Write the structure tokens for this entry.
Amino acid sequence: MNRGPRTLASTFAGYFVLVFFALVFLYPFVIQIATSFKTEPDAAAHPLSPVPDPVSLAGYERVFAGTDLPLWLGNSVLVTLAVTAGRVLLDSMAGYALARLRFGGRRALFSAIVAIMAVPGVVLFIPKFLVLNQLGMYDSYTALILPVIADAAGVFIMKQFFESIPPTVEEAARVDGAGVFRTFWSVVLPMARPALITLTIISFQGSWNEFPHTLVAVQSPELFTLPRGLADLVSGSLGKGTQYPLKLGAALLATIPVAVVFVVFQRFFVRGANEGVEKG
Amino acid sequence: MRPRRPGAARENLAGWLFVAPVVIVLGLFMLAPILMAMWVSLTDWNGQGSPFRSGVPFVGLDNYSRLFTEEGLARQDFMTSVRNNVYYVAIVVPAQTVLALGLALIVNARLLRGKTFFRAAFFFPSVTSSVAISVVFLFVFANSGAVNGLLALLGVDGPQWFADSRGVLHLLLGAAGLVDPAAPPQALTTGGPFGLSWWEWLSGPSMAMTTIIMLVVWTTSGTFMLMFLAALQDIPVSLEEAAMLDGAGRWGVFRHVTLPLLRPTLFLVVTLGLIATWQVFDQIYVMSQGNPAKTTLTPAYLSYETAFGGFEYGTGTAISFVLFAIIVALTLVQRWVLRERRS
């Protein structure tokens, strides 16, 4: 058996493929970072180069002086905080009730939530606008936050989690005379930490990156979030020239928060992605 | 309902209080919108005032028949968008599934180190903002961008990606010498179903659409790779080793042991892919707005554009519901597959 050389060769081939694809998946980000520090002629002449020559901050200066990016950033932070906090609290309350509390209509409600998860987001663009318009909420912070402050998938994830932990601890608390809400708040939630972190991460990422909802919820530039402002920026509000250093710099600033959270909490992202397998 | 246990009434009340916020939000912004849109799709509402006013013209199923049976621009645009999306789905779904499976197999290989890094590298594009990443790809595929720079190194003159409306299938047919794309045979250009000629149906994705296809394959493969990885880790190593000892080669083990065990995940990834690819919107909005020559128009983008650009809310919502029907059908397939898997 000539196992040795064959294993060596396939190990080498394995690394070659891994490194090749790592480049394919990461090099666009390298180009993005490099180009954001390039001058415009340099960006056009050396699009592949990972080194800006000369290093120029002109793109970033124009991002902050010539666009509303600081405003979009503020709106994104506000909306993301509100939506994430809302989802974590409301989804876990509903998930807990569906898993543990006996109330009339519980099964029907759960079926409805599963059905709602299957509704594709894109077909709701116009319908959501219709309702926001009808309720007089269109073009406000309320429109950006309220419709997405709870989500069916989050409720589902929390329900599954609460069903997986033994009810003995809560029962003990109940016997000691604690009310339902008190038990939930000071006994159940602390136990649910891993699920809560996963839900926080998914909500943060989803909300920070949310684009189409902003398209049908607001139209005033003062209410733009980062993805909306960025989309507006590239679709021509800049006017003259390609201005790639500026655009890529702005896109980079929008990517950094998610990138940082991703690096720190990677395993929770992985868990969140695999929830998708179970939730269908 | 009479409370049967002590405290049952209180638990009933607590239960409803706990779910009330979610019920209100989902009812108001998921359920009510669908019902309201059903009504609007039967009217010619132009966005002025409430769609429930008495002056709003009720047109019955006209908005739907305009998409399928009546000749005109509405049907032509809709069928063009369906054609574009069919080609998009037909390429993205197999490509991302094969790439995701391939990456998962390599990352899962026992002898290699640095798995965590490579897994993270392949997954990272999936978590970034679709808008931000579309901006990056606008530059990567720009006329003087990275891809054309790379092609120039190989001595190839890159196309003007986003301005190029030529269909890839047309180009291939031309290159194979079967048809001259500049003068297609009359048999193909004169007739065809739903207001498009056979020649138009046979265009393939345009060069502009292929950039969006590449972007989406690149961003979604990472997520699906994780699903395959989770499934691969459930396969006992002893099973594959036993097959190896029985004399099966590497390909034989993959073909006869690994792949059959991955089958449920494979079905899942394909159906999730089918559902997602019919919803492509963000990338179209940022990168092409349906251009050039409507070759990147998709039903999702067309419905948005018809309502908010053309103020034809009735037609726009009708397109949404047709899209809805397509996706619901695919979801039912997914549900059915999952049931098989669980049992």
Notes: Residues 73-108 of chain B form the longest helix (36 residues). The radius of gyration of chain B is 25 Å.
